[in-house]
Design goal:
The protein is of the alpha+beta class. The protein folds into two domains: 188 residues, no CATH class; 210 residues, no CATH class. The chain has a six-stranded mixed beta barrel with strand order 2-3-8-5-7-6. A hairpin with a 2-residue loop joins strand 2 and strand 3. Helix 1 packs across helix 12, helix 2 packs antiparallel against helix 10 and helix 10 runs parallel beside helix 13. The longest helix is centred in the last third of the chain and has 44 residues. The chain is elongated, with a radius of gyration of 32 Å. The protein starts with a helix and ends with a helix.
Length: 416
């Protein structure tokens, strides 16, 4: 009980001194505030960015293999001059995979481009046009807020129908019901049969349907040359339940090498991409960004720590007489030590809390004014408070230790 009482009195002394010297307190915690703001704001942005990107990546499907011309890679030695000579996937590749694959649940041929979308006097330029074969909804899960998906007959016959994204619907029709209305895509009339549910910001490209128009592949064949490299043709293959990605990749490699008549010694002239390649590349990028955050914020916190240590040494000098009186009345060394450690800790924590409050205000502002959802997590709050506490203890220990070792007689007679 006596120990608890002494700890409580030490905390009260420290708090009283902090409140008496308000200006000095403000200047002392400014460095910590800036440092915590710098570090935790970087972590908060990176965490939110990573979460949004990974949500977009998840929409691509972790059990889907993408047959494309270009591989997904983040290597510095990316051999683009080799890949550019490759042929693009075509309908023959698609049909061979459909016919011969034993491990595929669904196979989709897909092309995408940009075009003008028009309804009456409203024009949307460079709108994403995404044309897919019928099994697209099996591979790319999405929900419709209105309407329906294409029927097998509509996909097979290439009917002039479209499913539009949420943002496209808002810009073209406002509050009107778009179902059954005709829009023009690159000059061709199509009827809207569905509106996709809002998915949010697209962080990886091709992830969100909000600003996309979906049309049947066979209808797109009447509008575009789907063998053109500019339409980014690709084949999406979803693995059967229980089939690993590697099993599917091995099978697809055999099918495509046979279909393209490649000799055993020849390299693959196609890429078999999977979501894990993006995830691994992103892991490296986010590690580097976090490291930069630590470096930037670390210097600010270091300066703040020196500022607190300097102020604490001044505080010891100012209160030397009081320390002498306390020790002459029986105060133990640890009681004096705790007074100054608590004061330093309070300064650092106050600076950290202010920095966290600034970050929280920024997250609320950004989230309410943009599609980017940014969140200050409990983990980052805890990290900010922990770093503040550690800096406060380290910065305050030397002056606190010096104060606890003062001779009571010399301290009472000291003049500042």
């Amino acid at each position: 009980m006596i120990l608890i009482k002494l700890l409580k009195e030490s905390l009260i002394f420290a708090f009283s001194n902090v409140m008496v010297n308000k200006l000095r307190t403000l200047l002392s915690l400014l460095g910590i505030t800036i440092g915590i703001f710098a570090i935790i704001s970087v972590f908060t942005i990176v965490d939110s960015l990573e979460r949004n990107i990974r949500e977009n990546i998840a929409q691509l499907g972790d059990n889907v293999i993408y047959v494309q011309k270009w591989p997904w890679a983040f290597d510095a030695d990316y051999a683009w001059w080799v890949y550019m000579r490759r042929p693009v996937p075509d309908l023959r590749d698609y049909e061979e995979i459909r016919r011969r694959s034993q491990n595929a649940e669904a196979v989709v041929f897909s092309v995408s481009t940009g075009g003008m979308v028009r309804y009456n006097g409203t024009y949307l330029e460079n709108t994403g046009i995404w044309a897919n074969s019928h099994e697209f909804e099996t591979i790319r899960h999405f929900e419709l807020e209105r309407g329906r998906y294409f029927t097998p007959f509509e996909s097979a016959t290439g009917r002039n129908l479209a499913i539009i994204g949420h943002e496209i619907s808002q810009r073209l029709f406002g509050g009107m019901d778009p179902l059954g209305r005709e829009i023009q895509i690159s000059g061709r009339r199509v009827t809207v049969i569905g509106v996709a549910t809002r998915e949010g910001m697209d962080m990886v490209g091709g992830g969100s349907l909000d600003e996309m128009v979906l049309i049947p592949l066979n209808f797109a064949r009447t509008m575009y040359n789907i063998r053109s490299d500019r339409l980014n043709p690709m084949i999406m293959v979803k693995a059967l339940p229980g089939v690993s990605n590697q099993e599917l990749i091995d099978e697809l490699r055999q099918v495509l090498r046979s279909a393209r008549r490649l000799s055993p010694a020849a390299d693959d002239n196609f890429a078999l991409n999977q979501v894990s390649a993006i995830s691994q590349g992103l892991d490296q990028i986010f590690v580097m960004i976090n490291l930069v955050g630590w470096i930037i914020g670390g210097f600010s916190i270091l300066v703040g720590g020196f500022g607190i240590a300097n102020i604490m040494f001044v505080s010891v000098k100012e209160r030397t007489n009081i320390i002498g009186i306390q020790k002459s009345l029986g105060a133990k060394n640890y009681f004096i030590l705790l007074q100054f450690l608590y004061e330093s800790l309070l300064l650092a924590l106050a600076g950290g809390i202010i920095g966290l409050l600034l970050i929280f205000g920024g997250t609320v502002l950004i989230s309410s004014t943009s599609d980017f959802n940014i969140t200050l997590t409990g983990g980052n709050i805890g990290l900010g408070l922990f770093v503040s506490a550690v800096i406060g203890i380290i910065a305050g220990y030397a002056p606190a230790y010096a104060a606890s070792r003062l001779n009571p007689v010399e301290a009472i007679n000291h003049t500042f």
